[in-house]
Design a protein that fits this description.
The chain is α+β, with helices and mostly antiparallel strands. It contains two helices and twelve strands, in the order βααβββββββββββ.
């Protein structure tokens, strides 16, 4: 069980360093040219000090903006590291989320969410191809339910990833399907463009913001 370290991409850093180097080079060149002009200017036709001041102000503004961007980038990296350090304590715990379930022979704790008007619910299990491999009646309510991964004949399903949904009935009328959350062990936490992603058993990935509960095992 590991927590992936956050690495700073090399290309943006290289780009910032390149811009700073270019800016410093241009600024130094400008000052050298300005000094040379001042030393060799015609006393009867002096330089336009207003234009020179405007150019100096422009260079100073660009330099200040570059420094501000660098500071913001550093702050963003620090906040990301803080978030990952907090998530390090999640690794090894079980997270509850609406995500596929990895079944490997052991019972999986489910958290059903039946419709309000339902008087009967059926757990529907689909494989990675979308085919229904099992259907079983479940107790009505939100209480945790231990799913043992049996197929339609009562035999254990092969190890793998399965999608679970809940069919809600009122009498014989199907009201629709609802989500079934499950508890899965967190193996890893990763930081990416979409935010922090948690890797669960079987390599199943879910965003940290989609986790609705945690529990110790």
């Amino acid at each position: 069980m590991t927590v992936s370290a956050i690495t700073t991409p090399t290309s943006p850093a290289t780009g910032v360093a390149g811009k700073k180097t270019d800016l410093n080079t241009d600024y130094t060149t400008f000052l050298k040219m300005l000094t040379t002009q001042l030393q060799n200017q015609d006393p009867l036709n002096p330089m336009d000090t207003g234009e020179t001041s405007s150019q100096l102000a422009a260079f100073s503004s660009v330099e200040q903006q570059t420094r501000t961007n660098d500071l913001l980038s550093d702050l963003g990296a620090q906040f990301s590291l803080f978030g990952m350090s907090q998530l390090a304590t999640w690794v090894g715990q079980e997270a509850r989320a609406d995500a596929p379930v990895w079944y490997s022979g052991a019972a999986v704790t489910l958290s059903p969410n039946p419709a309000e008007r339902a008087d009967r619910v059926v757990l529907v299990v689909r494989d990675t191809a979308g085919a229904v491999v099992s259907r079983e009646d479940m107790p009505l309510g939100n209480a945790p339910y231990e799913w043992f991964g049996a197929d339609a004949t009562g035999n254990p399903l092969p190890e793998g990833s399965y999608a679970l949904t809940l069919e809600n009935y009122s009498g014989d009328a199907l009201l629709g399907e609802s989500a079934v959350e499950s508890y899965q062990r967190i193996l890893e936490a990763r930081n990416g463009p979409a935010g922090t992603t948690l890797v669960l058993q079987g390599g199943i990935e879910v965003l940290a913001t989609e986790i609705t509960a945690l529990r110790q095992t």
